[in-house]
Amino acid sequence: MTKGYWVASVDVTDPEGYKAYKAENADVFRKYGARFLARGGQCEVPEGKLRSRIVVIEFPTYSAALECYRSPEYAKAMALREGKSVMDLAIVEGYDSPQPSAS
Predict the structure, then answer these.
(1) What beta strand segments (E) does the chain contain?
(2) Domains in the chain, ordered, with CATH?
(3) What is the mean predicted confidence (pLDDT) over 52-67?
């Protein structure tokens, strides 16, 4: 089974209010086996346009990534985020096939 990933591009508009969302989603992410790979660190965007904060979260499976997003627990966290940020989110299945060879 391939892993699943949330790839989010976020602008936080109310940093103080956003803290409640972060606190609420911690238990939800733990329940679904999520692990942060990137969480708003330094970022360069050489092409295109993204929001100010990039977050990448790894899940043990693609279905776990979908289940987490669709869960009632995460819905509660999302309600806390409302009006405090703007987010674009993609839930992506990991790639588990041969890599290009260097020939």
Answers:
(1) 4-12, 35-39, 53-59, 85-93
(2) 4-93 (3.30.70.100)
(3) 97
